[in-house]
Amino acid sequence: MRKLKQYSLLATAIAAVLSNQAIAQDEQAKEQKVETIVVSGTAGGRGIRKIDAGFAVTNIDAVKIDKLAPKSTADLLKAVPGIWVESSGGESGANVFVRGFPGGGDAPFLTVSLQGSPVYPAPTLSFLENSSIFRLDETISMMEALRGGPNPVVSNGQPGLTTNFQLKRGSEDTEGTFKYTTSDYGLQRLDAVLSGELSDDLYYMVGGYIKRSSGIRDAGFTSERGQQFTINLTKELDNGEINVYTRQTDDTGAWYLPTPLNVDGVDAEYTQLGTHNRQAVIYAGNNNAMEIDLGEGRGWKGHISGGSIKLELKNGWHFIDRFNLTQGEANTYGLVPAGGAELLKDVADNGQDAKGSVTGTIYEGDTYVQSMGRWVVLKDIESFTNDLAFSKSFDKWESAYGVYSASTSAQDWWSLGNAAYYVLEAGGEMLDGIECNTSVEGCAWNYDINSTGDAKTLAFYTTQSYRATDALTLDIGLRSERHEVNYSVDENLNGIIEKSVDYSARKTSWTIGADYKLADDMGVFARINKGYKMPYFDDFRDNYGTYEAGNPLIKEVTQAELGYKYMGDNTDFFATLFSNEVKGDTFVRRPGEPAEILTNEALGIEFDYNYNHESGLSVNLNATVQDTEITESPDNEGNESQRQPGWQIRVTPSYDFELAGMFATIYGTFSAVDDRYGNNENTVVLEGYEKFDLGLIVEPAEGLKLQIAADNLTDEQGITEGDPRNVDAPNGRYIMPRSIKFSVSYSF
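Request: output the structure for the sequence above.
Response:
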């Protein structure tokens, strides 16, 4: 395995952290078991004790979320072992990679679920991955993150990572929280949540937020604005419960793009977007002029609504039905680099200087400029999912049978390209005196489309579990899925359909697992599975020639896991050895270019450790060590998978203490990541980096809490990705610069 020395050093560090595990336990602790219940990976989400689960799942509750202070939903996923997240593009548009699975961007192997239902069945469409349409706030009680395991069989059959966010729910007691947050970059945010009982056995939770800021990378105007409102109602019945919810969101933020590397003044705080360039005119289709506001960035305006019915039927049968409806707009506007930094004299018509189109300033020939594409993506999406399951326990046998159905649609209008030269500075303006800046075609390629797509999925699945002995449990799962897609594309906005798809495919996924209990608080598990990532709309457009040649565009994923788990009174420790192979991955550098078809393999181990002591000290550690390889490729066989670190580690210690008669908590996070390659050719190296975060919570009175949190305390200039559209990688995207948030909240 590559980098063996680095891996052994990391393993030594992890072992040192874990060495106090045995010392910290006593006989009384062994009798007090943590009854953590997880619902991810179970048929219909009935739930299972975490210590009994034969798969790797991570729980992050509201308290931990508060301490992690994530800037986006994707940012929270950094706390999940086996996951590499590039969340440096802003609130939306993250890149999420799972356990060495391949990917050139977005989050092709991530499903975000709310109350057990996928928020959108297609994990990734161009300019849309699941986390982009989900916002965190005070209404969330817990997130579960399941990697591999039974994933390919249950729910939407995601073979990679399924995250399930659970809403807070009401009880007989009326409870509430009001929270105000500000920051050193001008954030103004107000959160509120209230819950209680409406009538006998009918409970409510309502909450949401409103926020405004000029952005952590200051654009000079209110580049981030949003509001969200959530209602969750639960009716308890004599033999079950009914739950309904809706989450209404209108939230947009600046889209932070890669910027030139090794140019003075361009760093983690830099954004090209500003008041002098947010408004623009582009030409699309038959050279029709269109006024746009690039300050609208990326966002989500829509709703995620659904519910569930859970019933205890006669003869020991259980019934659960979970459903979800998502509708809205997920639009994207941005200044996308169309090349590297250049000197003005090399592109100016007169070879000397040029004039600013807004201010009239004359810029000299040694001024840095850059060609920027003014990209517009308008996307209307809708989906409805339903997951129905029956289950029953027979002595040593547990059986479940389910039906999952999904209807997914997307209507897209794009105008990509529209490039012009801008002064390379924060808010830098477009220039007069460069011929292509005023031409209809612009200074680089253009790609415009109008498309519509509908997909339907119908799957039948079953899971069977047999308790062979008091210690050994065996399980098996099967899923038969039919996937249909109808899709058409007008690629020139001229009313002519250039690409049309009428697609149908059926696949059978499976999982086999064994769980062995070493003691009441300790066990091991083994599992193998095979699943599939079915194609959606953009897969056909990007790979149309490959599809016409008979390739079904289905990614086949085979995984194996071997895990150890321990859950004591104050210590949890999970270690999972994983191996996977992904066949049929396609990578397209830019729309219209040929697809590269790959097979990727990965071997690694992930650690998830939590320690909580009565002294007030707690520690969370998650780490991943992996070796990836492209095993089949026309040109890159034997190389490492792009943008996949060989190792990463994240340690979050916390200490509770009294300060002048007040309860206080000091906490921090240290994270480090290995070098990565920015491309499949392995010619672009993205250097590893370390990052420190620090926070303090003080509770001066009952219900009152003050919190200050510093992110990237040392202002590390780490790079998360290169330039996926340029093989020379003259640009890169920095992690977010140092920022400080302060909040005050009152709970009752």
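Helices lie at 4-18, 21-24, 27-31, 62-68, 73-76, 537-542, 544-548.
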